[in-house]
Design a protein that fits this description.
The complex is a heterodimer.
Chain A: H1 25-30, E1 45-51, E2 57-63, H2 65-69, E3 73-77, H3 79-82, E4 101-102, E5 108-114, H4 117-124, E6 128-133, H5 140-143, E7 164-172, H6 175-180, E8 184-192, E9 204-209, E10 215-219, H7 225-235, E11 242-245, H8 262-273, E12 277-280, H9 283-289, E13 292-293, E14 296-304, E15 310-322, H10 330-333, E16 347-355, E17 361-362, H11 369-386, H12 391-398, E18 405-406, E19 411-412, H13 418-429, E20 445-455, E21 469-475, E22 481-485, H14 494-506, E23 513-517, H15 534-561, E24 568-571, E25 574-577, E26 580-586, H16 587-592, H17 594-597, E27 605-610, E28 619-629, E29 634-645, H18 652-671, E30 702-708, H19 725-742, H20 753-764
Parallel strand pairs in A: 1-12, 10-11, 13-17, 15-16, 22-23, 29-30
Antiparallel strand pairs in A: 1-5, 2-4, 2-6, 3-5, 7-16, 8-14, 9-10, 9-12, 14-15, 18-19, 20-28, 21-22, 21-27, 24-25, 25-26, 28-29
Helix pairs in contact in A: 11-19, 14-15, 18-19
Chain B: E1 2-8, E2 11-17, H1 23-30, E3 49-52, E4 55-58, E5 71-73, H2 86-93, H3 103-116, H4 122-128, H5 140-150
Parallel strand pairs in B: 1-5
Antiparallel strand pairs in B: 1-2, 3-4, 3-5
Helix pairs in contact in B: 2-5
């Protein structure tokens, strides 16, 4: 049911919109913070995974008898123990806890539990595997050919041949007709690379059974419930027999910590060993065995009239989902972003999700938004320049405005700070200093300014994609509270932000609200902390539960004070008479009131389930100034300005932190990061921080963050999701700045000196 | 098996160490001080940083057998009688921790440098902190926190 949330005219919020000390931050700076891998359980063993040296192979048999003879080894599991289906297995591809087929170099083969990690490592070398090595394919376009080696041959049982997981065809209007009206058409082909989340904390999990068949797992994750549910189905036990806990401290996720079938193998291993088992990944394994961002190819065609109006836009996309189907919806999702930013009557999209024998790929900050905006926003600057129009003017002219209908879902734009982000960002970077003619300056070092805009995802993108947030709030007799939420805090500070929303709506005190997260035995069901959804979705549930708690307190206060409820309000931990504010009772005084607590009414529990009523578009613009050394192709980013429509900033410093961190990841995507696969063997070539280049403190450009707050009318307190914003527009802004500086067009990320130099040569040829 | 005697956070300890084990293993396993983290095991990320005889070092690369007679400071050892070190206070105040996993290493790298060079420029600090990777913050508020201590804005 649609709801309209009406905000008071001049709201006096005293808790949201401020930046209090983050809960638990003192634990982080003093070393008290306990992450999964810091935990110890009585009798705990250590697990290591045996991994495939081949990109594709059947396993005819595994002999681990010698491993079991090694002193200190307690158990080994293989496909014979753990070939249990991991759901959600997308579409018709299968992933199991352990399988008798391996599909990439590094794929899991067996798992060992031993008294020390060293012994477990030694045991791995004693496991004998009989592989039937098969031909493999690592190039996504090769994988689409009919005679390509098949990554998931078991799909043939369902009548599906080849490596195409998903085909998506979406059209609005008629693109073919639209192009006929064009004064100018450009066509390009873009490539975006495989990059890694690189959370500084590697994956770790701990599994422990009791003798009644109850399993407890602690794991560094972005969700507790989704994994518990998958485990319950795989192990065929009731959900009540699994307690899945995400510890209070998780060292970053960025989309890489919520899907892995290895949990099933670990659970079976722990059961077999009869003792708690701790499993973790080395950094090398983080690089070559965990999900990456999907490499993509975008073939674009864009047509405009000479006044800059779009007549048609078309993209053909190929998404390399790697060896398993975690990236299943990437190919279809990309189309959405063609419809939410600019007006265009004719849009056509064709997308393919394709298997290859490479590490699985899928969700990483920004999901499909990040690669596809690179292609789309690079085109904007090119086409604007070609018709002699300033790219900022082009965007201002074509953008969707409040009230315009988004073709994807038929929903009008509810709020938009997009224009403000464009104008304020342009001012901050000094857009007026820009050369209108790209590459027109003299000299070896050329400077340029470029921009990019975006609209990212938010829950309710389509009305068929309903998702929910839950909150449970309970009172203590002293007027303090416990807030129980199913979502996980992965470092972005959700714990504090949810407490702020709760305290504001409740009329309570921030430090008298204790928050428990992501424990399946204790908290209500929670979705994955991903897709920039938590503040908007779970925050909505928190507000509703807190609103109800406030009303119950006011009702009890009305009884205790002998006054009508309508004359009472709650703020700062007390209920007071509106016309005589000094007359009031603290929450604890109300709940201690004999009439009330003798009835048991001091125990108040409120619960809310919430779904945001409408898609709420998160917009933003970014501006980059670069200097290009035309003799080497080396690019130095001098300054990045990010201006983001965040709806409303609940905790402004935390919002800044998200935007700053997103730029770091975006700059890496733009300039330096790529996980390289050897086409001869399928091996990952650079699984370490030396050869996979992440930006460090001295590499970062000057940053300026501008927060724009249009206050959306539909979401809780008008918020929008900020977690993924700035990773999206950084690469195209940098690319456009390089284009402005030199006139060179680089289609392939990352914009390394080799790639830029090649583009410079091509331009000058 | 070798026995080493060293001081950690002001206290003398003598423990046996296995060949091949590292200072990080000693800190985390023998001493159960888990503030130092393994982020890469190769000295490339800085999450394992501790202060060894006044120098910030990646403890995952220091052989345990070599710490005999040395002075080690971990993140657990820089608060005094429950009062946070100014760098710790600054990291909290300026929101320089998000997930917190890189934080102990960041704080100790900064402390080791500031103890020897109390008035660096921001450029110097950015240069020094290159040994420590962060994926959450973009380094912005980390540098801000350290500079606040340099300027004396945090006690």
């Amino acid at each position: 049911m649609a709801k309209t949330i009406v905000l008071p005219k001049q709201p006096e919020y005293t808790i949201i919109g401020t930046s209090p000390e983050m809960k638990l931050s003192k634990n982080k700076v003093t070393g008290r913070a306990e992450y999964t891998v810091d935990m110890k359980r009585p009798g705990m063993l250590y697990a290591r995974t045996l991994r495939s040296p081949y990109a594709s192979a059947n396993i005819r048999g595994i002999d681990y008898s010698k491993a079991m003879e090694l002193s200190g080894v307690w158990a080994v599991v293989t496909y014979e123990d753990a070939k249990l289906l991991y759901k959600p297995s997308h579409g018709n591809a299968r992933e199991y806890g352990l399988d008798d087929m391996v599909r990439y170099v590094g794929d899991k083969v067996a798992m060992v539990a031993a008294e020390t990690e060293e012994i477990a490592n030694q045991a791995l070398e004693l496991i004998e595997v009989d592989y039937e090595v098969l031909p493999f394919v690592v190039d996504m376009e090769e994988a689409m050919k009919p005679d390509a080696p098949v990554v998931h041959p078991e799909r043939q049982e369902l009548g599906v041949d080849g490596n195409i997981l998903e085909v998506s065809e979406q059209e609005w209007g008629d693109a073919e007709e639209g192009f006929k009206e064009a004064d100018f058409i450009i066509e390009n082909r873009f490539y975006t690379p495989r990059v890694c989340h690189c959370a500084i904390e590697p994956h770790a999990m701990l599994a422990e059974w009791d003798l009644d068949g109850n399993l407890t797992m602690w794991s560094s994750e972005q969700t507790a419930f989704m994994i518990r549910d998958s485990l319950a189905e795989a192990l065929q036990i009731p959900r009540s027999k699994i307690r899945f806990i995400v510890p209070e401290f998780v060292g970053g996720g960025f989309g890489g910590k919520y899907e892995s079938a290895e949990k099933i193998a670990l659970a079976i291993l722990a059961k077999k060993a009869g003792r708690p088992v701790m499993w973790r990944l080395t950094r090398e394994e983080e690089f070559y065995t965990t999900r990456t961002r999907s490499p993509c190819i975008f073939e674009t065609k864009t047509g405009v009239k000479k006044d800059g109006t779009f007549v048609a836009r078309q993209i053909r996309a190929i998404v390399d989902v790697g060896s398993y189907a975690w990236g299943a919806i990437m190919a279809s999702r990309a189309a959405s972003y063609m419809t939410m930013l600019y007006k265009c009557a004719n849009i056509k999209y064709t997308g393919y999700g394709v298997f290859t024998n490479t590490p699985p790929s899928g969700a990483m900050r920004g999901f499909t938004s990040t690669p596809v905006h690179y292609a789309m926003e690079a085109e904007i600057d090119e086409i604007a320049t070609a018709i002699g129009m300033d790219p900022l003017e082009f965007r201002l002219k074509n953008k969707l405005n409040v009230g315009d209908t988004i073709p994807l879902n038929g929903v009008p734009v509810s709020s938009s700070g997009l224009e403000e982000t464009m104008l304020k960002g342009a001012e901050a970077i000094g857009w007026h200093r820009r050369n209108s003619q790209p590459g027109s300056t003299d000299g070896r070092f050329k400077r340029g300014i470029g921009m990019a805009s975006y609209c990212h995802y938010s829950p309710m993108l389509k009305h068929t994609e309903r998702s929910i947030g839950n909150a449970l709030l309970k009172s203590n007799i002293d007027g303090s509270f416990h807030l129980l939420l199913g979502i996980a805090d992965i470092g972005q500070g959700l714990r504090t932000i949810m407490a702020q929303i709760c305290a504001e709506a409740l009329g309570g005190k921030l430090d008298e609200i204790d928050v428990t997260l992501a424990d399946t035995s204790v908290t209500p069901w929670g979705a994955t902390t991903a897709a920039s959804r938590s503040t908007i979705e779970t925050g909505g549930a928190v507000k509703e539960a807190a609103d109800e708690m406030r009303m119950r307190l006011i009702a009890l206060a009305s009884e205790a004070m002998g006054l009508l409820e309508a004359g009472l309000e709650a703020k700062d931990g007390r209920v007071y008479e509106i016309d005589n504010p000094s007359n009031g009772l603290k929450f604890g005084e109300i709940l201690h009131h004999p009439d009330i607590y003798l009835r048991g009414d001091n125990v108040i529990i409120t619960k809310a389930t919430y779904s945001v009523p409408q898609f709420v578009p998160p917009y933003g613009s970014q501006f980059a100034e670069v200097e290009v050394d035309t003799e080497t192709g080396e690019v130095r980013v001098i300054k990045m300005v990010a201006s983001s429509d965040v709806g409303r900033a609940i905790h402004p410093k935390s919002v800044e932190g998200q935007l700053e961190g997103g730029i770091h990841m975006g700059i890496g995507f733009a300039l330096a990061e790529e996980l390289k696969i050897d086409p001869e063997t399928g091996r990952t070539l650079n699984p370490n921080f030396l050869d996979y280049k992440m930006y460090r403190s001295g590499d970062m450009p000057e940053l300026e963050i501008i927060i724009v707050e249009p206050i959306d009318p539909y979401s809780v307190y008008g918020v929008k999701g900020v977690g993924e914003m700035t990773v999206i527009a950084t690469a195209p802004a940098v690319r456009n700045a390089i284009f402005n500086a030199t006139g060179a067009k680089v289609f392939r990320l990352p914009l390394t000196s080799e790639n830029v130099y090649a583009a410079l040569k091509e331009k000058n040829a | 098996m070798v026995e080493v005697t060293f001081r950690v956070n002001g206290r003398a300890r003598t423990i046996p160490v296995e060949p091949g084990s590292t200072l990080l293993d000693v800190i985390r396993e023998d001493l159960r001080l888990t503030g130092a983290k393994e982020g890469c095991g190769k000295g490339e990320c800085g999450a394992c940083t501790v202060i060894l005889d006044r120098d910030a070092v990646p403890s995952c690369l220091v052989p345990a057998a070599s710490i005999d007679g040395k002075e080690i400071i971990t993140i657990e050892g820089i608060e005094e009688n429950g009062k946070l070190h100014p760098l710790q206070t600054a990291f909290v105040k300026y929101h320089a921790s998000q997930c917190g996993f890189c934080t102990p290493g960041m704080v100790l790298t900064a402390k080791a440098y500031l103890d020897k060079n109390p008035t660096p420029s921001e450029e110097e600090i950015r240069d020094i902190m290159m040994s420590n990777l962060c994926r959450c913050t973009g380094y912005e508020k980390i540098i801000e926190a350290i500079m606040a201590v340099v300027k004396g804005d945090v006690a």
